[in-house]
Amino acid sequence: MSKNPFSASLQSxxxxxxxxxxxxxxxxxxxxxxxxxxxxxxxxxxxFNQSASQSDIDAFLNWVDKPQQxxxxxxxxxxxxxxxxxxxxxxxxxxxxxxxxxxxGGDVSVISPQVPVDLVIDxxxxxxxxxxxxxxxxxxxxxxxRNGERYRFLKxxxxxxxxxxxxxxxxxxxxQVNLEYLGKVVWQRDADGVRxxxxxxxxxxxSHTPMINGLGVLGWGVGGIEAExxxxxxxxxxxxxxxxxxxxxxxxxAGVTATDLVLTVVEMLRKHGVVGKFVxxxxxxxxxxxxxxxxxxxxxxPEFGATCGFFxxxxxxxxxxxxxxxxxxxxxxxxxxxxAQNLWRDDDAELVFSAELTLDLGTVEPxxxxxxxxxxRVTLSGLKxxxxxxxxxxxxxxxxxxxxxxxxxxxPEGAVVIAAITSCTNTSNPDVMLAAGLxxxxxxxxxxxxxxxxxTSLAPGSKxxxxxxxxxxxxxxxxxxxxxxxxxxxxxxxxxxxxxxxAIDKAIADQHAVVSAVxxxxxxxxxxxxxxxxxAWLASPPLVVAYALAGTTVIDLHSEPLGQDADGKPVYLxxxxxxxxxxxxxxxxxxxxxxxxxxxxx
Length: 602
Known about the structure:
Blueprint: E1 7-12, E2 15-20, H1 35-46, H2 54-63, E3 72-75, E4 79-83, H3 84-103, E5 117-120, H4 135-160, E6 164-167, H5 174-182, E7 186-191, E8 194-199, E9 201-204, E10 218-221, H6 224-231, E11 236-239, E12 243-249, H7 258-272, E13 278-282, H8 291-299, H9 301-304, E14 308-310, H10 315-323, H11 328-340, E15 355-360, E16 367-369, E17 377-379, H12 383-393, E18 401-404, E19 409-412, E20 416-421, H13 424-427, H14 430-445, E21 455-458, H15 463-472, H16 474-480, H17 502-511, E22 516-519, E23 535-538, H18 541-550, E24 563-564, E25 570-571, H19 573-576, H20 580-587, H21 592-598
Parallel strand pairs: 4-5, 4-9, 5-6, 9-10, 12-13, 12-15, 13-14, 20-21, 20-22, 22-23
Antiparallel strand pairs: 1-2, 3-11, 7-8, 16-17, 18-19, 24-25
């Protein structure tokens, strides 16, 4: 390692770090590579004469002249991320290997991951209980009863294996935990008595692993066998990919959320075709796009079909690292290393891409996606016609009624039966979460109520959300509408929405009715959210609250009221939609101590 011809020295925080410098290539073409490929190129320099050769390095430089899918390369990620459903089999395999070594009288300590592995338990909580102060505790109790054996096994694994950490249930969703806590941007290790600095990279056993790309960390989802190979120190074999550049310009309009933006991006990239390719976002529009907004986009990389949706490191990344409680030495190293390696965002750089798209952020409109696919975006005003068309497909009519005599009400066709603030896609973003809380507060002041057939739930991706909701008093307002905390996990987004009330479920089934779910998640395939829910709509958290109040998707929220206030006057969406100033006033209360406290016990 010490003889590596690409090694150089970097000074940061009065410490010296060894790194593998592009400048040592003696070929300036590297400067025109997309930043995502620069991260892969650094990997080749660091593992030169191990898993990488001069021909691999030349392939990257030649890519600049001909930016298309290239030859096989090896990629050695810095770490591996797992969730409990897909991660348990890998730990079972390690346990089996350990047992085989023990039977032969060998040293079982040799069976351990060779790179750091974090397994976050987040896929096992279900929304059985909701709309009550006891919902969280009752759901956790059921989760432990159902999964006790699996959890005991994982706890054993944490003690048995080195380089293996388990983030316990009730902490958060793996991708949000990765963004807020695990991600380092620049990784460090001691090698040959020298401190090395290199890009934080990873592969994960969940398709939404690319969410960490919003922080400037390159990572994507892989299968279990690939993840096992990576954690055992074997490089991931891959083709040098095409990279689609997406230039962002302008600025989001008031009232337009990061959710609206990502649904627009998914639609645009699906139409272009990016399967098996990298996507890299760049341009002056990034100057006003927070890391949490970028992470919302990167999270839905599987939905637009790419391998990753990468954002470069810049001032916004440093701001986010500081907000989430990372120490100042880490922040300084991230900036020093990124600038030394030409990985810092530079809007004037003439980067080469395989193809180039442009999106003016000012053209993005409030949107949802559905009823069956995340790429089928509809505007807010267009939802009424979209659900009406869906209802007609099943020989129903939008004015049909669904009586539920056991519960004393009649639901409309297109009724919202599930309204879930869920998924790391949006719960990692304080702006949209606070918007939902402020909408709940305004709705309560006007005397609005959620319709009785709506199953409401709030499942944040980390405890930090609960902290800032509690500190701002907004959890009280959400509770008043039935959006009580149900758990910290994926819940509705992965189909763990739990049962509907038996009478509602029976009424839907008996009449073959078309009803809706509205959720702040990333997937809405038919039957995924609930077997009897034919239409599922992806939306921002504040729109989830709005449709819970309306109780139906057969409504144009641009022109029709959500309901009536205590005086019988109509209340429209714009009457209770919070301004950006209101959101930012509450957001100021979020600080690094919240994040440090939330993850102190991990």
